[in-house]
Amino acid sequence: MLTFIVRRLLLAVPVLLGVVFVVMLTVDLLPGDAVTLMLGEHATKDAVARLRDHLGLDKPFLVRYLEYVGRVARGDLGRSIQQNRPVAAELADAWPATLQLTVAALVLAAVTGIVAGVASAVWPNSLFDALARLGSLFGLSMPIFWTGLVLIVVFSLWLNWLPVGGAGSLTHLVLPAVTLALPSIAMIARMTRAAVLDVLYQDYVRTARAKGVGEFLVLGRHALRNAFIPILTLLGLQSGQLMGGAVLTETVFAWPGLGRLMVKAIFARDYILLQGAVLVFALVFVVINLLVDLSYGLLDPRIGRQ
Amino acid sequence: MTAWMRFYRNRLAVLGLALILVLALSAALAPWLAPYDPARQSLVEKRSKPGAKYWLGADEFGRDILSRVIYGSRVALLVGVLSVLIAVAGGLVLGTISGFAGGWVDAVMMRGIEILLAFPYLLLALAIVAAMGTGALNTTIAVGVWGIPTVTRMVRGAVLALRETEYVGAARALGAATPALLRRHILPNIVPGLVVYATLFMANAILLEAALSFLGLGVQPPTASWGLMVSTGRDVLLVAPHVATVPGVAIMIAVLAFNLVGDGLRDALDPRLRGSA
């Protein structure tokens, strides 16, 4: 098991190196002089020269790439151009808010989606099933930045129950978390329904029923455990969806997280900060999917033994 | 039962097809359908509520929202279709090369695809736009490139599976050259899956274009893009909620339409997958 974990962790390293490479390359392909774009046309020669030196733009791309990777390996993500603070510090400031938002949304999405999906599968073609499937279709089709605005109009403007935006208390978290969770709820409910329906027709479920196991136990002990593997895979992939969605949700609700920091970095052409933020997102995404892979062994002993 | 009959018996899929038809017509006939010039400003009527003159109200500059929604369908469909073409063409070429070449070429290409897939949703497109700059063309490229990795993996998987089938082996034994093998025996078998994927990707492409434009990183004003309209309406959300919310309904209907047709096509083309996510 331990060798498996170590091997998977080592395999993640080239992927992350590649992510940094792609981001740096896209920035490098930028037409025109990056430094003038960053500082504006009226920057002094001195400032341009200093930033050029700071970014190491006189060196070839590969040298810069290797230097950056070397610094990142030592925990140094560079200094942001706009604020002139260590990127690591800026990311550390914004990270807790995004973590709070995405974890809340993931929990909400997993619980609601799985419960709705299981109910749909246990009572297929019932009224609940029809409504859940219709709801899923809409959930997948609504742009989340728009859903967020509609929720603000209903719950903040009309009902006056929840704050319009910002962070601080639990009431601030409700609307952004629900907004971010909606498409994932739809996706998880759909997938869970299909997975559970699939399992319910297996021979071992019929055997369990035939030997008189109660319906509740059949579901809990035989069906759900096996249906969980595809669901878990989807949860890992959805975490990527949630991190991307956080960029939009944080913008709508003025939530002080990484997503908003990233958008600000793009507008300010602060590529050092942008690189750091993308790297953190990719790292978290890779680690989550690694955890998902590891947990397969817990659910299905056959996988663990291989 | 043929695939088409299965598709037509799916009421939701036919509804989706009808909605796509309406969208296509509104894009094609925008100048005749729109009651006003989408750029015409009337500041005294700014933020007008929906009513007899402006059916869906007027925005912050007193522009007719209905006319802008109609013209917006052009942006959504054009960016969507072109980015689907980029994703499918890129994925088809890369996936075929990877699947056919095998060996180290395949290994290197698949590691590259894994790297692109390690970008959480939206972030790859954001990085591309951040580097290339905003605008309709760059948005299209960003959305299209975002779709390439998935198509590549799909095509490669299909090519690998088909390469081992008996009829491809037989064709090869009879002396078919690789291009003929591809054209006559492999591609026709990939097309159905690709059509389903392209339809569902179209829905996502419309969503992504809207999202980028909403962030201010996509299509730029004064072009009437739905995502951009939601974004500008956001500034007056609390005084005139309709300015931001109405264009969002258009996005939702367009995305829903392509999702319905994509689901319907998948069920029709491969009945075994019926109902799966």
Report the largest inter-chain contact.
A-B, 56 and 49 residues
Share of β-strand residues of chain A:
under 5%
* Shape summary of chain A: flat
Helicity level of chain A = over 70%
Q: Biggest β-sheet of chain B, characterized?
A: none
Main sheet of chain A? none
**Total beta strand runs of chain A:** 0
Helix content of chain B: over 70%
Detail the poorly predicted runs of chain B: none
Radius of gyration of chain A: 24 Å
Classify the secondary structure makeup of chain B into a structural class.
mainly alpha
Percentage of residues in strands of chain B: under 5%
User: Could you name the CATH homologous superfamily of chain B?
Assistant: MetI-like
Summarize the helix and strand pattern of chain A as letters.
HHHHHHHHHHHHH
Rg of chain B (C-alpha, Å): 22 Å
Q: What is the number of E strands of chain B?
A: 0
CATH class of chain B: Mainly Alpha
Average predicted confidence as pLDDT of chain A: 82
Oligomer: heterodimer
Features:
heterodimer; A: 306 residues; mainly alpha; 0% strand; B: 277 residues; MetI-like fold; elongated
Textual characterization of the structure:
The complex is a heterodimer of chains A (306) and B (277). Chain A is an all-alpha fold and 306 residues long. Chain A starts with a helix and ends with a helix. The mean pLDDT of chain A is 82. Chain B is mainly α. Chain B has a single domain, classed as MetI-like (MetI-like fold), CATH 1.10.3720.10. The longest helix of chain B is centred in the first third of the chain and has 37 residues. Chain B starts with a helix and ends in an 8-residue tail after the last helix. The chains are: A mainly alpha (306), B mainly alpha (277). The interface between A and B is large, with 56 and 49 residues.
